[in-house]
Amino acid sequence: MAAIETQDDAETFKKTFNSWVDEVFKENDSKSVCLSLQLIVQRHLPPESSEWSHEEIIKELNKKRRIRLDRENIGQIDSCELLSADVTHLYLQFNKISKIENLECLPNLQVLILAENKITTIENIDHLNKLVFLDVSINLIEEVQTENLPQSIIILNLSGNPCVSQSSYKSNIIKRLPKLKHLDGAEILKEDKLDAGVEVESICGDNENQEEETTDEEEGSEDEDDAEETVTDNTARKGKLTAVAAPLVAKSLIGYKKLPQIPANIHDLATNILLRSQSRMEERTKEYKKHLQEMTNIKILSKIKPIPHNFTQKKLPNLK
After folding, report:
1. Which of 8, 90, 238, 251 is the most exposed place for a label (fewest CB within 10 A)?
2. What's the pLDDT score for residue 280?
3. ∠60-63-69 over CA atoms, to 5°?
4. 3-state secondary structure of 2
């Protein structure tokens, strides 16, 4: 009899808890807000910025390249014109956004995270020609209008949307995105391209043609750390499998100059991209170290006291 009472109590508690959760979500829905200047300032500037002038605030915001506005109950994307056109990363996951809009003023966007919102259509991003990483997992997207996807995308995550159950879903996306390397956490293989009716040879080409292409693919490799960061964020979602696999990284490139010449294929393409990205990263590292040394020299010089005008040799200590 006691067991029955315990079971009944558990059921009662479960119903009460679920009811409370529903009320909390309803309350959150009613309090959705627009992406505003105040919200951006709260997340990216120090508390004393409340005393700054409008010009000072805009000046500081223009220095930001990565904007994080996740978990803010945002219902509408707005006020992006207050940000710098050089912003490359925009994180808007775990909000209440129903429409992708007002991103025209961010032409250099490379990473856009919109996971766990209420988006029904992928739209208004086809002008983002530098976008390499797009995450719109766990939304309400029933059909993907592939023409709205920028062809620069290398990593795409649509898992948790109704559209992934369509039979032609994967092939349509592969046809649209020639640079795509990962879809919904899985690597795009040569077989996937063949199944989609895409000629692998025409995509890869020879090594010389690939070296003449734009550096968008290289930028995708440089954003691997953001892909890994999103993996960590996604794995924290309660009861929802939406992990985004980071791109495969070639870890042993020490003797890459001695690699034999082999026919071009998708693996050669990925390796060439990584090698060029590594070379460019090494150059940037050298420039950064040089700049850091210059800054260090300036700081050292600034700490040296100037020689007074009345300085004489008599003030020197006797070293004999």
Report:
1. 238
2. 75
3. 85
4. helix
Cα gap 31→24, rounded to integer Å: 11
Give the Cα separation of 52 and 178 in Å (integer).
Answer: 47
Residue 208: pLDDT band by 50, 70, 90 thresholds?
A: very low
Q: Is the distance from CB of 78 to CB of 35 less than 8 angstroms? A: yes
Angle at 269 between CA 132 and CA 167, to 5 degrees: 60
Give the position of tokens 């259509």.
121
Give the three-class secondary structure for 80: helix
Q: Is the pTM of this model over 0.90?
A: no
SS3 for 266-306, per residue? Answer: HHHHHHHHHHHHHHHHHHHHHHHHHHHHHHHHHHHHHHCCC
Q: CA 151 to CA 216: how far, in whole Å? A: 10
Q: Kindly state the average pLDDT of the residues 10-17.
A: 65
Asked if 192 and 174 count as a contact pair (C-beta separation under 8 A), the reply is: yes
> Concatenated DSSP letters for 32-44?
-EE--HHHHHHHH
Characterize the bridge pairing of strands 111-113 and 182-183.
unpaired
How far is Cα 177 from Cα 189, in angstroms, rounded to an integer?
14
How do residues 63-105 score in pLDDT, each as one tens digit? 999 999 999 999 999 888 888 899 999 999 999 999 999 999 9
pLDDT class of 6 with cuts at 50, 70, 90: low
Token pair belonging to 230: 């999103």
**Tokens, residue 304:** 């040296």
Beta-carbon neighbour count of residue 157 at 10 Å? 26
From CA 174, how far away is CA 178, in angstroms rounded?
7
Q: Does residue 116 contact residue 135 with C-beta atoms inside 8 Å?
A: no
